[in-house]
Amino acid sequence: xxxxxxxxxLREIAARAVELGLHLGADQAEAAASQEEGLSxxxxxxxxxxxxxQRDRGLAVTVYKETRKGATSTSDFSERGVEDAVRKALSIAxxxxxxxxxxxxxxxxxxxxxxxxxxxxxxxxxxxxAATELALRAENAARGFDPRIDNSEGATAAAGEGLRxxxxxxxxxxxxxxxxxxxxxxxxxxxxxxxxxxYWYTVARAFGDLDDPEQVGRRAAERAVSRLGARQVKTKVVxxxxxxxxxxxxxxxxxxxxxxxxxxxxxxxxLDSIGKQIxxxxxEVEEDPFIPRGLASGAFDAEGVATRRxxxxxxxxxxxxxxxxxxxxxxxxxxxxxxxxxHNLVVKPTAGPLEELVADCEEAFVVGELLGQGVNPxxxxxxxxxxxxxxxxxxxxxxxxxxxxxxxxxEIFGSIRAVGxxxxxxxGIRTGSVLVDKLTIAGQ
Length: 444
What we know:
The chain has 444 residues and is of the alpha+beta class. The protein has nine helices and 17 strands.
């Protein structure tokens, strides 16, 4: 992708849509023009299984007239296509009900000047042959790790680039290209009269930041083999350890509970929780949009509002919500620059890595996999099928399957004993392993 040429084209299209919206009678208008392209190669048992190329583009137009909102989208970037999209948006607005909370984010909150270079774009000439080699290296390492690796679910190498330009009638227009690279591998182990599967992956903004594919394959195989010979356990209440890659889901439930939509709809177990103690006083959660190469970094949100660093949880106390301009108005508050989601949540470690958390437990359950949904966002009730490992006297004793981890998120948040230093950076939530003091493990 020629990022410079694409950016110029998208800027022209987004600006044209906004200008046309105002010309045709809108009080306010906004438009987002985007283009993405990517390559994905999957191999299985040493052979190429699929090669996929993707190229998408789109224009989303939203207009506001007398507090009525109309929105539409198109992939037709011609002058006629853009005009048709704007006219359809205005037509839709004429039929919608008035909403006093609708409209652009306030003009004074728009990001100013050139955005900082957050190192989000690393173009690569990764082609089919190179991607195939990468995937084969991962799968070969996995299949050769242990004779008990009986089959493969395949390995995939992927690369993608994209650019989104956002413009609105406040005069804001901005965007920047991004890139993503990944490699993953899944295998099946056979032994002790059972079959077990597991996987591993690596993802980064820059190709050079990916883990070695052999490391990905070996880790996938190691995880699959470690689950052989799984036992069932009796129902009991014990400490539960969520490894870093699964612990992020706990903080994902936090974000879902403090989103503006959940708050103004009163559909959350953390209703009106600003200023309240929801974690132990050693828990600190920061939102940092400016982490170089971060997978959720950004200088402004989907409405052009400037992002900022802030403490979301300080000494266990919730400091704020995750708000767009619309949800903020519904709550009588100001947007937090989170239209489109949170930006790099960083949970401060309080202890050593997973191994130290395990060593600190006389008896515990280490979660290896979570199954199903089983989380009620209104009450906080938590019930997830799981498999993992049983801990006795500070060491992993044997694998476990067919259990349910049950509790309530209010109690889970309040009974966190430690956050590990083994921080997983492969997503927008950066946390280490989490040790929860007591949860019910429902088994036999």
